[in-house]
Amino acid sequence: MTINCKGHLIDLTHPKVMGVLNITPDSFYDGGKYKDEKSILSQTEKMLNEGATFIDVGAYSSRPGADSVSEDGELNRILPIVGMLLKAFPEIILSIDTYRSKVAEKCLEAGGALINDISAGKLDEKMLAIIAKHQVPYSMMHMRGTPKTMQKQTEYENILVDILKYFSERIAQARKLGIIDIIVDPGFGFAKTLEQNYELLSKLALFQNVDLPILVGLSRKSMIYNVLDTTPENALNGTTALNMAALMKGATILRVHDVKEAMECITLAERLIEMRW
Question: Looking at the whole model, is its pTM more than 0.70?
Answer without folding.
Answer: yes
